[in-house]
Amino acid sequence: MSDTFKAILVSRDAEKKQSVEIVDLTEADLMEGDVTVAVEATTVNYKDGLAITGKAPVVRRWPLVPGIDFAGTVIESSHADWRKGDKVILNGWGVGETHYGAYAARARVRGDWLVPLPDGMSPHDAMAVGTAGYTAMLAVMALERHGIVPDRGPVVVTGAAGGVGSVAISILSTLGYHVIASTGRNAESPYLIDLGAAEVISRDELSQPAKPLAKERWAGGVDSVGTHTLANVLSMTSYGGAIAACGLAGGMDLPTSVAPFILRGVSLLGIDSVMAPKAVRLEAWRRIGADLDLKKLSILSRSIGFDGIIGAARDIVEGKIRGRVVVDL
Ligand code: NDP
Predict the structure, then answer these.
(1) Staple partner for 216: which of 49, 95, 141, 238, CB 3.0–4.6 Å?
(2) What are phi and psi for residue 241, nearest 5 degrees?
(3) What is the mean pLDDT of residues 313-320?
(4) What is the pTM of this model?
(5) CA pair distance 306, 167, nearest whole angstrom
(6) Environment class of residue 262 by beta-carbon count within 10 Å: exposed (0-12), middle (13-18) or buried (19+)?
(7) How far is the CA of 221 from the centre of ligand 1 (A)?
(8) What residues have CB less than 8 Å from 202, skipping those under 6 apart?
(9) pLDDT tier for residue 307 given thresholds of 50, 70 and 90
(10) CA distances, 131 to each of 93, 155, 276 (Å)
(11) Together in a domain, 56 and 138
(12) Do 166 and 101 fall within a single domain?
């Protein structure tokens, strides 16, 4: 009989009531793929919180092992790019949504979905960055492509004490930007300043319905909140600036007007990490290796064990997690 390993499984009954449990699986239970990986580290992202609590329809195949990202070692491969012993990272591609994911000691996936672990980074480090941090890097790259360099003026980061926000602040400050961090947790100001924020503002300043245009405060920004927050951020963006939108922690709507776009030439840059092409991922992870001060990872992350995943998933959807949570398997 093959060895069993622990996995988290979300299921739903005939009434579509969702439940979550820890089960034993064997490799024969895993889904199709040409590479099998021993998962060494994973993480709890906002989307994992939604999947485990069922608060949004992230899971689209039942039952499912959730977990949208992992780092580990290849133990079996029939894919030309990967051999036994290779260290790899996976982010997205529907893993943890429609394909069995990271919350198990073994994962079987398509080799095309994997990227190599950057030199000098451990699986734990890679998951301290995780999908939230890789998304933050995609947002920074989008701002740069738009010409938003540090000399253009300050940049705002909303949802600052969350995963995307914490990594975005770390990267932007290392690159020399003047970062304005917006948080609902004012007690986290010292933490945000430690990560490199130059100013901390209250989330309340951005949470009311937005005017079409307001006083210009920043040249760019990374928004993980959506709704009124993103509308206010846009209305306060200076002429020719750009905002990278990557999240919906506050809501999915966008109650804005066209004024920032047509009167100030502001751009809204959409960020998707899940289906990003491989070349973009490789560049994002290369830049993370180059431009993220690894010392900041120990400030912005904490470790939990496998048994802590379900509790952390519940906490993250309630906005109670600071920075990143790494699961060491
Ligand atoms: P976190 O929960 O770690 O961070 C979200 C932060 O948003 C919170 O820490 C909090 O920051 C703030 N926030 C939470 N609730 C509210 C609210 N009701 N109103 C205003 N602010 C709020 O999540 P992540 O950083 O991992 O993800 C952030 C968002 O980005 C999520 O919506 C996630 O789905 C999305 N995402 C998108 C990706 C993509 O590919 N586009 C990839 C990864 C994430 P504070 O306490 O500082 O105010």
Answers:
(1) 238
(2) -80, 180
(3) 95
(4) 0.96
(5) 23
(6) exposed
(7) 14
(8) 182, 183, 184, 186
(9) very high
(10) 11, 22, 12
(11) no
(12) no
3-state secondary structure of 325: strand
List residues bridging with 242 in a β-sheet. Answer: 220, 267
169 touches 163 (CB < 8 A): no
CATH number, residue 139: 3.40.50.720
Mutate to test the pocket of ligand 1, among 95, 167, 223, 225 (most ligand atoms within 8 A of CB): 225
Based on the fold, state whether residues 149 and 227 are members of the same structural domain.
Answer: yes
Looking up residue 83, the CATH number of its domain turns out to be 3.90.180.10
Mean of pLDDT values over 24-33: 97
Query: 288, 321, 291, 317: which is closest to 304 by C-alpha?
Result: 321
Helix, strand counts (H, E) of the chain: 9, 15
Report how far ligand 1's centroid is from the alpha carbon of 77 (Å): 35
User: CA-CA distance, 181 to 194, in Å (whole number)?
Assistant: 12
Domain that holds residue 79: 5-117+296-328
pLDDT at 200 over 60: yes
216-to-146, 148, 181, 264 alpha-carbon distances in Å: 18, 15, 16, 10
Q: Locate tokens 């309630």: which residue? A: 318
Query: Is there an atom of ligand 1 within 6 Å of 225 CB?
Result: yes
Same domain for 213 and 144: yes
Q: Which residue has the tokens 């290392």?
A: 174
User: Would you say 74 and 86 are in contact if contact means Cβ atoms under 8 Å apart?
Assistant: yes
Atom 35 (ligand 1) nearest CA? 247
252, 187 Cβ separation under 8 angstroms: no
Ligand 1 within 6 A of CB of 142: no
